[in-house]
Amino acid sequence: MENGGGGGGRGDVPDDANEHCPGTQSEDAGKADACAGCPNQQICATAPKGPDPDVVAIVERMATVKHKILVLSGKGGVGKSTFSAQLSFALAEMEHQVGLLDIDICGPSIPKMLGLEGQDIHQSNLGWSPVYVESNLGVMSIGFMLPNPDDAVIWRGPRKNGLIKQFLKDVDWGEIDYLVVDAPPGTSDEHISIVQYLQATGIDGAIIVTTPQQVSLIDVRKEINFCKKVGVPVLGVVENMSGLRQPLSDLRFVKSGESGEADATEWVLNCIREKAPELLSVVACSEVFDSSKGGAEKMCIEMGVPFLGKVPMDPQLCKAAEEGRSCFADQKCSASAPALQSIVKKFIKPE
To answer: Is 77 annotated as a binding residue?
Structure first.
């Protein structure tokens, strides 16, 4: 017999349950007279009841973390991990105590982007110790657990979820101001798990990273709807790789001929030095992706979420990520660092 609303809309009553189902969390689950013949009877009778003890442990562990920010993307390859890394560097340089948790189980790039390749996790009587970049910036990633960085992590959902749970309940972050969580692209097991486990501890919200073109924005819309459905506030959307910005002096020039392309960089730069040296300080800008339909900013207006700003495609930022260093440490990332700082200031409020 179908439930037919016998559960009164309760979330712990399966759709295919019998009428008068006591609920999966009830002590009578699978044992009451109403359970006879129900397809879920055996599962309900043997499943553990009450709150997950691991979730209780997570709540206790997260009690020392003031703010939790998820960094998400609908599409892979949009610079989400680069943003997570530089956001963490920025918060640390603002003298906050920061933790960066990498839950991209199958593609952990955070260790490289923080300059921590080859580091190991250490365990104490308080739990797993993060790997520290600075005294106020700790990192945790499955990348520290792989014997060989080229090893593929071929795990199904339950095993991924188990590791995420372990990261949350066993890592000893200590007293920190911000925990930045770098999630994989999409809306899959890892996203459901991190939200489920952290919801009881309070999630400040999610920052969603995209590029300007429609093929990325299509998936970002899904990511925003995911956040709305699971009750995670969207702190805002960042449009990354929003046009190429590069000093003219850093460009490479080629001349095309019958025999192919020939490097003409020195010839061009010498001409500029001789005839218009002031042009060497000019920044060249170019649209890489088609943003004629309004890009992320227009999408944010349509979906009613904040637009945090644009970060240009900056070769120096790419180099900083490859070398595992902060883009704020020097003046090399002159195109991207100010944009990133402006974005951070929009959602980080003074205590």
So the answer is: yes
